[in-house]
Design a protein that fits this description.
Number of domains: 2
Protein name: Ribosomal RNA large subunit methyltransferase E
Strand content: 25-35%
Helix content: 25-40%
Distance between the termini: 70 Å
Keywords: Cytoplasm, Methyltransferase, rRNA processing, S-adenosyl-L-methionine, Transferase
CATH class of the largest domain: Alpha Beta
CATH superfamily of the largest domain: Vaccinia Virus protein VP39
Binding site for S-adenosyl-L-methionine: 50, 52, 68, 84, 108
Oligomer: single chain
InterPro entries: NA-bd_OB-fold, RNA_methyltr_RlmE, RNA_MeTrfase_FtsJ_dom, rRNA-MeTfrase_E, SAM-dependent_MTases_sf, TRAM_dom
Enzyme class: transferase
Radius of gyration: 21 Å
Length: 256
């Protein structure tokens, strides 16, 4: 408490009516990455005490839903309820409250810290993975995602998992994060709705040739541009990049 009483963002939050100093982290993240826009529907996972809900409402003015195991003091115009963000049943509850899919899912939840760093890091990653799985079910295509994680050995694997699901991904520590903190925020923009992901191995047939001269295969109506391929070739390919409307792949094996 003594540290908090002297903290710039703690005092600023008190003065400006935010429930937590963490409100400025979301404000700074949004200023840099433009995650939340006017009119967006936003879901806050692990929302207590409500500082990020206040910011989301300020930035959006659209439908805002907050979920936490703890009760959240009501915020006018914001829907909140108690639920477990790791439970699949929560998805239906949130969609009912929103009336559809979300534009943005945010999560500033953190585990109860034990002081044993390896354990705390592992629990943080598990919590972040639960938020990612929830976001994949709640977000509309091209929706955005922000989640807090603690740095450690498993961070890169988690970051790569987010990269498989979003077109643009950043890891960022806003100025409002305490310098001694190991927390960072992973920002995913433009949820991919493609039926393929980076690293997938696929058997394909080249059905057309694009303007670049490379062959194009179709997977469930989604275009895969295969570098160096020719019309009617049957190939084993590896997807190396997935964008919103198409993907790129490299040839692993020519079958014909």
């Amino acid at each position: 408490m003594a540290r908090d009483q002297k903290d710039h963002y703690y005092r600023k939050a008190k003065e400006e009516g935010y429930r937590a100093r963490s409100a400025y982290k979301l404000l700074q993240i949004n200023e840099k990455f433009h995650v939340i826009k006017k009119g967006d529907s936003v879901v806050d996972l692990g929302a207590a005490p409500g500082g990020w809900l206040q910011v989301a409402q300020k930035l959006s003015g659209g439908k805002i839903v907050g979920v936490d195991l703890e009760g959240i003091t009501p915020i006018p115009g914001v829907v909140t309820f108690r639920a477990d963000i790791t439970a699949l049943s929560t998805v239906d509850q949130v969609k009912d409250a929103l009336g559809g899919d979300a534009d943005v899912v945010i999560c500033d939840a953190a585990p109860n810290l034990s002081g044993a760093w390896d354990r705390d890091h592992a629990i943080s990653i598990d919590l972040a993975r639960s938020a990612l799985e929830m976001a994949k079910k709640l977000l509309r295509p091209r929706g955005n995602f922000v989640v807090k994680v603690f740095q450690g050995d498993m961070f890169i694997d988690f970051l790569n998992d987010v990269r498989r699901e979003f077109a643009v991904v950043h890891a960022h520590s806003p100025a409002a994060s305490r310098k001694e903190s190991a927390e960072t925020y992973v920002v995913g923009k433009k949820l991919l709705s493609a039926p393929v992901r980076k690293g997938d191995m696929l058997n394909v047939r080249i059905e057309s040739v694009g303007k670049s001269g490379d062959g194009v295969a179709m997977v469930e109506g989604f275009a895969i541009i295969v570098r160096g391929s020719k019309l009617k070739e049957e190939l084993l390919v590896k997807v190396d990049a997935v964008l919103t409307n198409f993907a790129f792949a490299e040839i692993v094996e020519r079958k014909s």
